[in-house]
Amino acid sequence: MEKQAKKRRGRGRALERSRRATNAAQYGLSKKQAARAARRAENGLKPKMVTVPGGDRTARADGLPQQAFRRDRLSAHYREQRARQAEYAASLAEHRRDRARTVAREIIAAHGPVLVVEECDIRMWYRLWGKRLSQTTPGMLISALAVECDAAGGRLVRASTWSTALSQHCLCGERVNKTLRDRAHKCGACGLVGKRDLVSAALAAFVRFADVDDPKTAYLDTAASRHAQITCSQALEEALRESTTPSPKPPRRSGRVAVPRQHRETSAPRTAGRRNRAPPDESRPRDHAGKPGPRPGRSPQLTLW
Q1: Taking a C-beta distance cutoff of 8 angstroms, is the pair 149, 115 a contact?
Q2: Shortest CA distance to 58 belongs to which of 26, 31, 24?
């Protein structure tokens, strides 16, 4: 994906150079080009012709360009490259949709057509992780999961992160506060140790709803999760400790794809890994998940254990 992104940026720069070269009168000189022209003038040399100006586009007093972009002269090579870029973008979008459908089918084949996902605002994810998130297309995957669940006779339900806080709880029912930087789950009450995301996924199996259509009515059945932890203690701990980190970067040679290097044993590259605060979708009630009452810290049924 990094290689494809590099090629895409290269195509964009090539198109911009072609437009500037064809419409040189509509662009000014860059700082470097202007400084070089000033030095040649001081030394009495002839001004050098600049074929590709690197400065800003000439604009009016209100900031609009003097000539609209649609009136620019475009070379045949520019039109050909633009058509290729549009074709590549369409094929890439279709590839992402097909990948989302394939992953959704694999998830449903392994876990059934009734799935629970957290009601999150994906726009907040883009603020934290940037455009790199578009390579994994989480919104497209959730939409594909919903379609495949309906086709298989099930349903994809959403649970509010405010009323469940899956990443801040343990299977035993205790609350284990973590920041975004903490990617490992360590419970001081029961001693459970595992990957944060895997523990949250396991807890999602014990989410119950007062109204399935209302995400804010979701709550965590801690008695059932504690019973499952006692019944399948050894197998559960082994499953939760399984690493989701990609394999180490293989050597560069033909037929091998380079894997991005991972740091601090994270499950995925994160640009917000150093934030020492709670996740934004769990620190306060969000509009999309409603505004429920006080968040229950523990279930009264925990007194049985």
Answers
A1: yes
A2: 26
Report the interhelical angle of 196-204 vs 233-240 (nearest 10°).
130
The model's pLDDT over 234-277, given as tens digits with 9 standing for 90+, comes to 788 788 876 544 445 544 444 443 434 444 443 343 344 444 44
Which residues does residue 116 pair with via DSSP β-bridges, in sequence order? 157
- Residue 302 is classified by DSSP as G
Angle between helical axes of 222-231 and 233-240 (0-180°, round to 10) = 100
Cβ-count burial of 34 within 10 angstroms (0-12 exposed, 13-18 middle, 19+ buried)? middle
Coil, helix or strand at residue 112: coil
**Cα dist from 16 to 13, 34, 50, 118, whole Å:** 5, 20, 15, 42
C-beta of residue 107 within 8 angstroms of C-beta of residue 145: yes
- 219, containing H or E segment: strand 218-220
Over residues 75-122, the pLDDT tens digits come to 999 999 999 999 999 998 899 999 999 999 999 999 899 999 999 888
pTM of the model: 0.65
